Amino acid sequence: MNEVLDMLYISGCDVFPKEPMKYHTSIKIGGKVTALVYPNTIESFKNAVNILRKYEKPFKIKGMGTNLLVSDDNLSFFVLSTERLTGIDVSGEVITTESGVPLKRLIEIAAKNSLSGMEELFGIPGSVGGAVFMNAGAYGREIKDVLLWAEVFDGEKVEKLSAKELGLEYRGSNVGDRIILRAAFEFKKSYKDRIIFHMKEILKKRLDKQPIYEWSAGSLFKRPKPDFYVGSTLEKLGFKGYKVGCVKISEKHAGFMINEGCGTFEDAMKLIEIVKSKVRENYNVELEPEVVIWR
Ligand SMILES: Cc1cc2nc3c(=O)[nH]c(=O)nc-3n(C[C@H](O)[C@H](O)[C@H](O)COP(=O)(O)OP(=O)(O)OC[C@H]3O[C@@H](n4cnc5c(N)ncnc54)[C@H](O)[C@@H]3O)c2cc1C
Question: Which architecture does CATH list for 211-294?
Answer without folding.
Answer: Alpha-Beta Complex (3.90)
